[in-house]
Every structure is written in C-alpha cells, then in structure tokens.
Fold each of these.
Amino acid sequence: MSEVLIYGAAGYTGRICAEGFVEAGLRPILGGRQDAVRGLAARLDLRSSIFDLSDPREIERRLQGVRLLLNLSGQFLTTQKLLIEACLVSGVHYVDLAGEVADTSHAFTFDERARLANIMIMPGVGFNVAPSDIAAGIAKARLPDANELVIALATEGGVSRGTLRGMLAHIEQTGHRRVGGALVPARPAESELEFQVAGKKFRAVYDPWVGDLFTAGISTGIPNISTYSVFPGLAVAMMRGRLLWLRDLIQDHLMPLLPEGSSARQLREGRTYVLAIASNGKAQVRVALTGPEAYRFTVLCLREITRAVLAGRWSPGFQTPALYGRALLEGIEGVKWDEE
C-alpha cells in the first residue's frame, strides 16, 4: 500500500508532481475531487482516491494507511484547515505548497497540536519558499548575530493559470514587511533591488506576500526581513495600481486561453535564482544558488522531502524547509551554488 497521498493531483502542479514521482520510483495515491484524477492515475498505473473536503470523517477514512499527505490543492487557507485537522486525528504528516504570509502563518497555528500528535506540518515546500528558506538558514548560521535579512527571487520559464490567478487576485493589495520581529504593512513594488546571481543581473521589486516573511522569521529568528521578486513590467504596473483594467480582462476573459502551465521546453530549460543576504550592520553574508525551472524545482523539493519523511527524518510540530538544510538541495539535480 502506498504511504503517500497527493491531494490536488488534477491540477497542473499535481500532474507534473505525480509524473515526477513515478519517474523517481515513488508510487503515490492520487487524490482530489475531480474525475480527471482517475484518468491520470490510470495513465501512470497508480491508485486514485476521489473525495472532496466536505466530510471530515471521510477525509480521515481516506488517510488510513497513509504516512504523508501532500496538499497541492490551492486556496490553502481553506484546504489547510480541513486536511490538517484530519492529519492530526489520523497521525499523518502534512506538507503543502502554501507560499504566502497568510497561509504559512495559518499553518503555524497547528504547531502545538501537531507536537502532541507527533506529526510534522511543513508548508511552503515549493520553489517560492523552500530554497530561499534554506538559503536564509545557511546565511544565519554563518552570521549568528544577523539582524537583517534580504531575500530575492527570479525565475525563467512559464507560469500556471493557478499561480497567475492567485497573483492577480491581490496584485495591488497591501502585504507585509518584517520589522523588529513583527509583520507590518508594506505596499507591493514600493521599493526596488538590483542583485546578481551566477553572473546574471536582475532588477526586482518589493514582494510583500512571500511566505519567507513568516517562515524565515521562524527558521532564523532574524527580526527584520524584506523580500523581493522579479516581475514583468506589466505586473509591476498593476502592483502599483495601474493597468488594473488589464488585470480584470485577464481574470474575466483571457484566463482560459492561456497555457495551463510551463511548456515541456520551459520545464527543461527554465532556471531559477535565489539570493539571501544576512547582515548585522557591520558584516554581511551572501548565500545564492541557481536551480531548475520553478515548477520542476517544486516537484523535486517535494520528492526530496517525501523521501526524508518516509526515511524517518522529520521533527514534530510546525517546521520550515530549513529543517533539512543544504543537504536537501544537494540531492536535487540542477542546483548550483553561487558562492564567493
């Protein structure tokens, strides 16, 4: 019997995750509320488990025999609560792809109960948190008295409809910055940052929604954290409150016409760039890396964390990917460190 259940397997990330797991010799159960899951499971010769989240007892029943639940179903503020509650009752470890402050901090509210249930809860295991959280942890270890952390991300490749839909929904809304250990309001694109990784130069804007603002606060204890990402020019304009008519047009009419996600070529050739800079006012430490395309990087992070959990390498309660440190990324093909 499989020990891993992927919930949300019908989505773009769920599909490429299932395919990647099979390539790596893993045999997960594919779960979700759509019949499309059955077709994917049949194609990959995997078991399927079709259920929605309306009945807590049914969720618990579906978790029988499962050791690890991977939640790849969006709207994490909703799906987290229902699935984590079932994992607490069933003694099942839980990870998800939550990548924003609201949903990573929501997962933290289950910390004490997860410790008592002796299970691990780890949100943010995809590209948008995992490698940067690990890089931040390394930087903190090298500069233990660091009091400021800057994280910057850049990607080359495509974007899924789900990611685009989520981003456009709040693209001009106020987010956060971590100041003195507290999350304070910050506007999207309120400042810019030029940075360089592996010889490539980038211009990023302030990204106030990134889950690192919460997770890195937990994993490093650094009180002041800022997060930057590289966005296309049109997105930056929307972040600053302009061209919102275009946002509405994409959301209301154009979304179904866009590609489901990255193309096969983008998955193969795309790259990601991660930078974490820790400083204490006198010195600074820079930790940078490049990795595979963002969605592929996400699948590979999921794969390595799954292997770690099944091998018994986990800690109870709320954890961040920094728990696994550099060793996690060393097991991922295509990751290269940009070290000074």
Amino acid sequence: MLVFIARRLFVSIWVFLAASVLVFILSTNVRDPLAEARQLPDSSRESAIRAITERMSLDDPILLRYLRWLGDALTGNLGVNRQGQEVNSMLENAFSATIQLITGATVLAIVIGITIGVISALRQYSALDQTVTFIAFICFSLPLFWVGTLLKQFLALDFNDWLADPQISPLFIGGIALITGLFCGGVVVGDRRSRITAFVSSTAAMAVLLWVLSATEWFSDPGLGPIVVALTAIGGAIGFTTLVSGLEWKPPLQASLAAAVLGIIAYFALDPVLDDPQLITIVLLALVTIGVCFALGWFLGGDLYRRNAIPAAILTGLFAGAVIFTDRMLQSFKSYSDSVGNRPISTVGAETPNYDGSFWESGLDSFGHLALPTLALVLISLATYSRYTRASMLEVMNQDYVRTGRAKGLSERAVVTRHVLRNGLIPITTLVAYDIGTIVGGAVVTEQVFGWSAMGNLLFTGIAQGDPMPIMAFYVVSGGAIVVFNMVADIAYAFLDPRIRLS
C-alpha cells in the first residue's frame, strides 16, 4: 500500500506540473492584457501600457515567466493580478465563498441521491421507481442557467410576495397531500393493503398539517415548540434504531431513547446558552453530544449490543441537536424577515451588505442567500448519484452472498443494510471523491446566475482580462483538488473492497 501511494503521488506531481505548463501557456494567450490600455487617451496610454507590461513581465519569454511563477508558487506567493492586487487575498475570498456554496449542495446531493437510488433499487420497476427515474433525468437534462432563473422567479420573488399573506389554497394542499401519499405508498414494502393504508394515512396527515399551518399563519412566524421537538427526537430514536439494528433488540433502542430524552432536557436547560451563541459554542455542544451519546451506547448496549447501540445513540443525539438548532433559527425568522424588508429569500450575492444581526439571524441570512444556488446544484446532481446507486444496488442484490444471507434467515433490513447497501456503495466512493475534487473549482454558471464572487468568478475574470495570475491560482486549487481526491478515491476503494490489490 505504501509503495502504491508513493508511486501514485510521484506520478500525480508530474501530471500536475505538466498540466500547469499547458494552462500557463494558454492563459497568457487567451487575450491581449494591453487591449484596454491601448484605448486610453494619449496622455495616459503610454504610462498605463508601461505599468501593466512591467507588472506582468510581458517583455520576458513565456518560459521565464512560468518558472518565475512556479518558484513563487512553491513559496506560497501567487503573485499579483493586472491591477496590482495580491492574488493570494483574491483566492482566499473566492475559495471561502466556494466552500460555503458547494458544501451544503454536495452533501445534500450525495445524501438525497443515494437515498433515492436505494429506494428505487428496492422498488425496482414499480411506479415509484419509474417516476423517480423520469424526474431525475429531467432535472439532469435541464440547463443550469434556466433552472436558476425559474428558482429566482418562483422560489424567491413569488415566495417572498406570498409570505406577506401566507395562506395556502385548497388546491395546493390537495396536490401536495396527494404527492406525499403516492410517495409513502410507493416506499412501503408489503401487500396492496399496506400500501393503500400508507397512502391514505399519509395523504390525510399532510392535508391536515398544511391546513393547520395555513390557518394559524405559521409561515409568517414559524417555530417548532417543545412538543414537536420532543416527538421528533423520539421518532428519530426509533427510526435510527430500526435502521442500525432493528427493534427486536432492546439495548440499542434504550440507548437511542435515552439520547432523545437528554436532547429534550437540553432543549430547556440550554435556553440561556442558545439565546445568541457563537459558532464555537455550537461546535462544542456537538462534540459534547457525541461524547455523551457514545457513553450511553457503551453502557446501555452492553457487551453484546454495544456495536449497534453506540451509532444509534450518536445519530439520535445529533438529530435531536439538529432539531433544536432548527427550532431556534425558526424562532428568529420573523425578526430577520422584518429587518430585510420581508424578502428573506435572496436572489443575488452571498450575504446582505452591512447586515448585523444575532447568530440566528445571521444564519438565516446565509441560508436565504444559499437556498437557491444550493437547490439548483442539488437538482442537477441528483440523477448521477441516484442512477449510480440504483445500478450498483441491483448488481449486488443478485450476488450469491445476498441470497445466502436470506437463506440463513436474516431479516430483510439486515440483508439490505449489512450486505447490499454496504457493498453497493463501494463504486459510489469513487464518484463522490471525483465530484468533490471537481466541484472545488467552483460552479461558474451558478455563480454568474446568482451573483456569487467565488472560484468560478476568479477564473472568468482572469480570462476576460487576459491575466494569467488569477487563472493559475484557480488551477492550483481546482487541479490540485482533482489530483488529490482521485488518489484518495483509489486508496479508499482498496480499503473498502478487499478484492482490490494495489501491490
């Protein structure tokens, strides 16, 4: 393994350097950097041309300019752009904006896409499978700039107008309730009676819920409250226990329920701390939650069930914390909405200029600016993850060891989670690593549509001005990420699949 890593690292470095030479040559010839200076009046033309020529070393050969850039880059200095600004500071701002933009979109696309793929595989050729396939490929085929324009119109402008009088029409309630019922009925594995029962109950429950939310004008001043938080935490405990170990074993369920109860107690006990916390406070609370839930799973699980009780308790604790976090943020929605002129969903930029609010209000501001570009990226990426997951799951479900597991009397949950899902996700590891590496380079179209100044904008500006320094800074991050994550994917694949030998 060490020999493989060393060999792959050596090759990757030479590939990165060879590509950097090509990118530098192309970036120096993409456009004349003196074109704008030549259009200046006679009084300032010569001085402007002289300043740009000296700053960009245009009189030197391309190879000498590349070697000078490479030497500075190895020391961490990426030079200055055509205007004399430090590229390091430009890259720092652009990279932080890109990470803020793509992190949520990437995580949501992976989680939702894999979940949809698993459900489609388990319900192969059903109406749900065909519907999900149809919708996924529609989203995949839509141009991103068109999706962004539709989202800005219907999920920003119209939604912000609707919040002034948040009344839900009976037709909309019926449509959403019917879609929810069809989805729940399609997901349920069982006979026709079970699916019909799930369809009717979920449709009625969603219709009643939407009617109550509309009648109470919940959307204008939202919040979950202690009852909903408690019921959600307990439901999460049951759900995570079912996923991890099943409900036939009591110790994992006891550990999960204990974690949920501690979360409910924390909802009241931490009220002063969560009034206006700092980000470090939230991180520390999450770490404490993991430690406490680990201890619960360790002691309540015992020697026989500790392996299942620990992850079930940790997942439940983090889920309860996320519900509490969401409730506190929703409680600040009305004050934030009033402070931004009742336009909480933004269409342009990464933040409201000069906005100064509490921790929760600032979080809502970031969420309001991230909502549309994140949703656009997720919709485009869903088809890839869902289709790859579905195909991989179906391939694994036909393997001999899966049939052997069923023949030994294992429950369907155990077969799916322990054998099918675990082995079916091995090929997805390569896809996830590659996507993360490529998306670090930014989403140029998304940034242009939603007015984000991130990595894509840095590249676009460098090309438009014929300036190689921003382009090379973009390459250092994006090219380096692709090389690193491709190597990580190969190594992870070998660890996950013992049939792979790298020696």
Amino acid sequence: MTTSTLLPHDLVWLADAPGFARVNALPEWASAAWLACAPLVVRRDGASDARIPVGLRGTTRAQRHAAWLPAAQVARVVTPGTIARQARWRDHPRHAALPALVALARVAPLLDAAQANWGVTGGAGFTLACGIDVLHPGSDLDLLVTAATPLPAELARTLAALLDDAQVRIDIQVATPFGAFALRERVRTGGRVLLKTVNGPVMSQDPWQPQP
C-alpha cells in the first residue's frame, strides 16, 4: 500500500495496533485495544510512499490526534464513496433518532440522482464504516463531493440547497485535483475560497486550477 492509492478522508485499519501504539506517543484514550477496532483517517499533508498522514479519533470531539502511519501498517481501507454506496444508515439502530442519519437518508437519493461523486465523512462516516457509534443528536452531517472539473450548474444548485437543511447542519467539502474547499464558503463569497492543499491552505479564486 502506498500513499498514491489513498486520499484524504479514507479510513484505514491497522495491521498491528499494539505495534503502532508501542512506537508512537499517543494520548491515553488511543489505546491498542481502541486502535484495533477504530480506523484512522487519512489527512491532507505532505507524505512519501513510506508514510501516510493520518488522524486518530476517539468518541468525543476533543479526542483527536495527528500521526504518521507506515504504509505497511495498512490492513484495510474504506473510502467515503464506499460508505455512501453501502447505505448502512438504513440499518443503524438509531437511524430515526439521529438528525445526521435522517438527513443522510433524505439527501442520498438527491445526490445519486444528480450523479454526484459523493461520500460520507466525519462522525457519520466513521460510525457507519466501523460500527463504533460516535454520533449524538447534535452531530453534523459531513459529505465529500469529488469533482475533477468545475461543478455543473445543476449539481452546484442541488448541493447548495442542501446547506439550508433546517434539521441538521450539512457541511459539504468539494475535492478538486488541487485540493479541497468548503462549499458553504464558496456559496457565501461567490468564488474565492480557502483551498486545503498538501502544502497547506491557500486562498483560491478557481480551485480547479493549479495554485501559484
């Protein structure tokens, strides 16, 4: 496994959780037992084929930790797109009680109909991918839309309309070949956005063009 096959927001499971915990200075909550079950999230950062930038997450927002993962440690990968296609929110025991999952069930058909290349990230993606429920009634719904070229007008309108959901905050990140930006910010500014790149954040008027 090399970094060229992994993208930000992909979830990876460790091949040797005790070994990873042993050689890294980790917070107390990130035990080997936790890491044996909980996937790590690929971060956007400079990397090599030997090391993958990842983020560890626990059960609360305060439990976050950045680390570097040897490529040989990757045992399994689940992408945001795979989580969307599996549609496991339908079978989640609290699917009717969690606004994020209620919203996900509502917007998924709209995204599919709009032919968006989309996936689920954040707490909802983590919960649906590994079965460890970190969602609560106030959880946002985080979505990722991958677009190699500028969003078609109809798709852009469909996505922008989702940002006005009255039941839950829906955050949509759009990934381009050069980085990713928050759709909410682009709707607000009409153009200029903060683009997250492997070399750090930059302001961009056109996220589909190479950054200076």
Amino acid sequence: MEQDDHRILARRLDLYHIEEDAPGMIYWHPAGWQLYRQLEEYLRGRMRELDYEEVNSPQLLPRGLWERSGHWEKFRENMFVVPRDSGRDMALKPMSCPCHLQIFNSSLRSWRDLPMRLSEFGACHRDEPSGSMHGLLRTRGFVQDDAHVLCMSQQIETEVARFVGLLSSVYSELGFEEFDVALSLRPEKRAGSDEDWDQAEAQLLAAARSTGLSPVLQPGEGAFYGPKLEFALRDRQGRSWQCGTIQLDFVLPARLGASYADSNGNRAVPVMLHHAIFGSMGRFIGILLEHHHGRLPFWLAPVQVAVMPVSEHQLGIAQELKRHLVAAGLRPKLFDESETLARRIVSSHDLMVPVVAVLGRREAQDGSITLRSQQGQWVADWHTGIAKLAETATRRLTEVPSDMLVAVH
C-alpha cells in the first residue's frame, strides 16, 4: 500500500532526503542516522561474538587493482573513475573484496591463521542508471555489511554453517521469520576453470544442505568468480526481498596473489567466502520500514520514549526524567510544546514513538510515571519504569510487556 512505501514513511519520520542534483546519494537526518547506527551496532556486536575482526579500507583505489581482480572488465561501466594526468587512474570501490585480500596479503600467513574472518561496513559507489533510483532501495552511494572469510577447503562447510546460523538469528530478531534460499550457478562469462566451478558449486551446495537448507538452483546467476547462496526474506505483505548472500570464490585470491604456508610448509592459495546479511544498509532500512509499517521495534526506534509533562508545572521534573532515561541508555524526546497534552500525544503517535511517559500532578507527587503504548497503559515508579524500559531495549523486545511493569497505587 502507498502509505507503507518507505519513502513516505521516512518523510513522516524525518529520516533522510535526497537532493535533486545528487540522485542516489542519501542525506541522513538525525533520526535516520540514529536508526542506521543502532542497526550497525547491533550487527557489529553479533559479528564480534563470532570472532570477526572489523577493518576499514580506502574508498579510492588504483585502476590496476581492479584490473588484476577482474572487476574492471566486469563492472567498469558502473564504476566512478577518477582520471589522472599520470595515467594512473583511480576508481571509487564498488565492493570491498580486493581490499580485504590486500589486508590478508600484508603479512605472511600460515594455516594456523585460518580461518581469517574480516568484516567492514564498507562505503561503496556504483554508477547505477538514473531511471533505476528508488529511495533507499536503489542508490549510487551505499554501505555494505561486507565480510570475507579466508579459509582452507576443508573449513568451508563449517564457515557456511556459521554464517547461516547468524543470518537466521539476525533476521528473526528483526521480525523476519521466513526466508527463501537459491543457489546461483556459473554464468556464461566467468573467471576460473570449469574444474574450479565444479568444485565450488558442489561444495557450496553440500554446505547448504548440511545446515538443513534446500536451495532452488538458478543456472547462470552466479557471480563472475564463484557460485553464491542468495537469501530472500519475506515481509508481512508477502513480498520477497533478496538481501543476504554468501559466495564461494576459488578465483580472486589467486588473482591477487594470496597464499599461506600449509602444515607441510608449502605455499597454498586460500579459499574466499564473501558474505553479507543486510547487503546495503540503506536498502535494508527501507525494507525494515515497509515490513513494520514504520512502527519499528522498541529497541530500534530512533525515539523510544516521548516524555510528556501535562503542564508547565511538571516541566522541570520531565527534564529530570529525560536525563535519567538517557543515563539508562534510552533515547527519549521531551515534548514540551505549548499545545495541549492530547495534541502532543498525537504528535508522538505521528512520529511512531513506541512509548509515551506522562508526568502530571499526581505523578510529580508520588514519584511515578504513567507509561502508554499500543499494548496498554501502566503506572510505575521511576526506578522500575526506567529499568524495565532499558531491559526491553537490551533484550531487543518489540514492545514493553505489561507484566514487566509494577503498578503503583
């Protein structure tokens, strides 16, 4: 439905805008950037739990690197190129995989270093056709939750299972209980030998099946350097969105000279797994907005608690409550405009703030707050109310359960 279009919802929530003379480039507003950072920090923490090490790589890189990797031949028309008089042209990166291989190559590696798991929220640019721009769903500048695992062939199944478990858990916590899986096989134009592709396709399919997945085969849809599993999540409107992917690559490490010393002391080329859970951060936010009809889970909402003094006599104590909420790690907003309480509550509903904390004369006298959400209304003392709201955010619950708050009579 039109009202669930993420562009309309984002305008209502004041999340971002796009300038006419910079199509496909996102200007994130405070509320939108707050949502973005919450999502980023959430995934960063999940990746850290699984021993991924975060790195950061340059955005502007020499043409020679893209020629060696094969991206220049494959993606040149979609790359932003910066010509130089010296002839050493540069280009904005459309993806981070060659950079992560350069980090791997910066030191001598042995089999004991594998698997090496690198992650990056990497800023990428692709010169997409102007007619394909669509809010957050298709942009020219975006950030990927890029991750690459350098490993040995016998470690592939374990690493794929590790990724599938993480992806399933993340999607579930964000409200997506179902997803479809496809295995994209060798395209007509590809790098690497048929033997490499035979092995890569067979190993990725076996790894997928070992996790209980039954991917649909998609001939000809693989990346130019390897087959990939593609994960399409389903939203509440029944639509399918391709987001997560994991690709098995026997080609790129060799092209960029990656090697390690095996257990016999011989040089060997590692296997590379490319993967992402969100894909584009902005695109995933657009999907998330439409899936939740703009009413984001409590732990993700840019503003979690609307603090409402009934009158100017409660303004001081409302400001104090806001400070306590901030100290507890929550994101409150003080609605202290001169309008009536009813109009201010409507305003907070328009911004889809999940919880309203009302402070009137009674609350000021007995040290309580009245909390309102879609699930109902509760009265709690400050300590209990703030602690339970913080617990709701920490546990990544969608709403504040009524039985978490102790009524004060």
